[in-house]
Each structure stands twice: as C-alpha cells, then as structure tokens.
From TrEMBL:
GO terms, molecular function: nickel cation binding
Homology family: Belongs to the UreF family.
PANTHER family for the chain: UREASE ACCESSORY PROTEIN F
Species for this entry: Bradyrhizobium lablabi
Intracellular or extracellular location(s): Cytoplasm
Transferase listed as a keyword: no
InterPro entries: UreF, UreF_sf
Protein name: Urease accessory protein UreF
Keyword flag Nucleotide-binding: no
Protein purpose: Required for maturation of urease via the functional incorporation of the urease nickel metallocenter.
Subunit organization: UreD, UreF and UreG form a complex that acts as a GTP-hydrolysis-dependent molecular chaperone, activating the urease apoprotein by helping to assemble the nickel containing metallocenter of UreC. The UreE protein probably delivers the nickel.
Keywords: Chaperone, Cytoplasm, Nickel insertion
Originating gene: ureF
Domain of life of the source: Bacteria
Gene Ontology CC annotation, any one: cytoplasm
C-alpha cells in the first residue's frame, strides 16, 4: 500500500510509533528526568522539617506522607495547573493562561515553596527554550504575564512542542514523586531498594491523581495537607538545613 503525505511516518513498522510520537517521548523523558538542570535536588518541599519533627521516620511513614501530598495536597493542585496551562496554551486562550499562571503562583503556602516552584519554572523554560527552539513558545510565555511556576512551565512547554497532555501529566507526577523520595532517602536516610519500593507503592496513587487532575477545573483546586504546609513554613527557621525548602 502506498503511503500518502497525510499519514504520519512510522519510525519502526513493528513498534508503531510515528516520528512525532518518538520526538515527543524523547523530549518528555529528557525534560522530566532527574538530570534535567532545574535544581530540583536542592528542594525537599518541607520534608526536611517533617523528618526533623519525627513525622517521617522510615519508609512506611515517608510513603504515607507522599500519598497524602499526592491525593490531597501539592501533587493534585500542581497536576491541575499542568492540565489547565497545557489546554489554555493549545487553545491559545491568553486570558485563561494568565488566570491559571497567576493563580498557580499565588497557591503556594510559604516563601520557600514560592522560591522552589518559581526558580524551577524559570529554569525549565529557559533551558527547554535554549535547547529546543520552538515557534510560539515566547508568545505563550509572555501571555502568562509574570512569574511562571514549575507546573505551568511544564504545561506550556509541553503544549508548544505538541506533547499530549496525558503522558505529560504522568511524567510530571512521576518526576515530582521521585524528587520527594530522593529528598526523603537522604534525610531519613533510606537505601535505594526502599526508595524504589516507595516509588512502586505510589504507582496507583500517581495514576489516580492524574485521572482526577485531567478531569478537574480550577474550581476543584484545594488542599487538605495542613501538616505539610506547616512543615514548609517551619523549615524557614529550622536550625540546620540541607535543603532550600
């Protein structure tokens, strides 16, 4: 059968991936890899204080803490911002994009979390823009109108490069959880096997959070993890610190 110019070109006839799908996957794996230089390793999202206070003492308590963050705290809220920013960028709805970016920047509970998410957001956009030039990204960034936090940055860069939202969502949450586990592993401390067990144990939580976030609107935003918010506030005055948040 002859291939028409309207059909996507397969990379591998046996694998079924198109060139566009392979490029999107390659970029997504790169952008949300622990090696992508946004400085995520230097932030703990309040986990350092939770370990100091005795809330997190072992693998089980770390897993429970992170499951709550995913379902009822920053994990879910950030995932909603990824989805809303991605959709607004795809639709070229500048008003919705600005609203999402402003709300996301105002939604963090402490000065250190604000530093964490804005610094990573700025680095994510700058590095992705430098390494992967993309038509329209500059205009999308400008439409946000101010500081761009990390989940919004992931959403708009993914949209600019035609990365589908569902895999971008799952990759974002995987990166978020992986960084939390990495911080916890250094602070408790935990071994590599325990860290991977926690990551495996949170697989269903990540999937459930992604599903909820994809179906949510900005009106569905909300957090019920007061202790985690308190941890991010108390970390600012913690006597000894390894992390910036």
């Amino acid at each position: 059968m002859l291939m028409t110019t309207n059909e996507p070109t397969p990379v591998d006839a046996s694998g079924g991936m198109t060139a566009e799908e392979a490029a999107a996957l390659y970029r997504l794996m790169t952008w949300l890899s622990p090696s992508f230089p946004v400085g995520a390793f230097s932030y703990s999202s309040g986990i350092e204080w939770a370990v100091e206070a005795g809330d997190i003492t072992d693998a089980a308590s770390l897993r429970n803490w992170l499951a709550a963050l995913l379902a009822d705290g920053a994990g879910f809220c950030d995932a909603v911002f990824v989805a809303q920013a991605h959709r607004a960028a795809v639709a070229r709805d500048d008003e919705k994009l600005r609203e999402t970016a402003e709300l996301a920047a105002a939604f963090v509970p402490s000065r250190e979390r604000q530093l964490e998410t804005t610094t990573q957001g700025r680095a994510f956009i700058d590095i992705a823009r430098s390494a992967w030039a993309c038509d329209g990204l500059d205009a999308t960034v400008a439409a946000c109108g101010g500081a761009i936090v990390y989940p919004v940055a992931v959403g708009i860069v993914g949209a600019a490069h035609a990365v589908p939202l569902p895999p971008a969502m799952h990759a974002f949450l995987h990166a978020l959880v992986s960084n939390w586990i990495s911080a916890g592993a250094r602070l408790v401390p935990l071994g590599q096997t325990d860290s991977q067990r926690i990551l495996a144990g949170l697989e269903a939580d990540v999937a459930a959070t992604a599903r909820r976030a994809l179906a949510a609107s900005l009106d569905d935003l909300g957090s019920a993890t007061f202790r985690a918010d308190l941890a991010s506030l108390r970390h600012e005055t913690q006597y000894t610190r390894l992390f910036r948040s």
